Amino acid sequence: MTAALFLGLGIWCLVHAWRGTAPDLRPRFGFPEPGKPLPRSTRIIFAVGGVLCSGLGLIIVRRLISN
After folding, report:
1. Closest C-alpha to 13, from 62, 60, 38, 61
2. Is the model's pTM score more than 0.85?
3. What are 11-33's pLDDT values in tens digits?
4. 37 - beta bridge partners?
């Protein structure tokens, strides 16, 4: 269950970093309106977070499979 959450969150972050548009969330903390372009710094944060979450999910999956 935990592995699926990390993988899903990581893929979601990577998709939005790739597309470069703001996700359909309630605008808060200075986020742009949904569908508008994201600033470069926010895209980098989404990309790094996506890689870290996906990697952690893959590590968990590998440990579950090996046991």
Report:
1. 38
2. no
3. 999 999 999 888 877 666 666 77
4. 21
